[in-house]
Amino acid sequence: MGTIVISGTAVLVLFGFGNHIWWLAAVVVLFLYVQYGRDSSSSTSSSSSASSTGGSSSGSSPSSYRAYRDRRDKQARWERRYQRERPLESRRQARQKSK
Length: 99
Known about the structure:
By secondary structure, the chain is mainly alpha-helical.
């Protein structure tokens, strides 16, 4: 997204040499991007990583690993439930995998 905004701003600046209104449009685009585009995505990621890591500034690795662990545990629970509720199907799948 940032690349699109920067390239669009560069095009508006180039057009601005002929008409100064384009420079104003470039400034507006940059302002809107800084105010709403970049700020909203960085504040949500920083708040989620700060809340999940206990406020430490160790980056996004612990939160992404925690999300991975949660997904892995949920998948394992679903697989155990499937095997418990449908024992014949799970045996059939195990036999097909071994062939």
